[in-house]
Give the backbone structure.
Amino acid sequence: MHLGFSYIGLIFLIMLMIPNLYWTKNQPKDYEKYVHNENKILLLFERAGEVLVTCLLLIFSDFNIQGITAWMIWLIAAFVLMIMYELYWIRYFKSEKRMKDFYSSIMGIPVAGATLPVIACCLIAIYGRNPMLFVSTIILGVGHIGIYLNYRKEL
């Protein structure tokens, strides 16, 4: 693992943040009714994972393109998942913006808004051979996907 700025990490974070910032003005109807029921342990995992993943994506240059190798398949797969994540958001923003729309699946992937970026980050960790990012992404996934699944179950 090599310390240094990761432009790939920055690109992924931008792909994550832009739709989320737009979402703050386009939250699902009745979202406030559900947010109070969040599992505090899952929320702790989610927040810790968010901080860890954000920092780690930016500070390891191993995530940058290191030439054309067989390992690039992991990075390409991660980008494909992030493109699917963007498509999920486009679909949500064009929808009626109900809770059901927000916690929907895409192409058979359950709670796509949580699952896609978590899997993509795991793939980046594999690409960069970075176990710290992989573990941090699992922590994030437990919290983020867990919260999404709880909301979906409530619906």
Observations:
- The longest helix spans residues 131-154.
- DSSP finds seven helices and no strands in the chain.
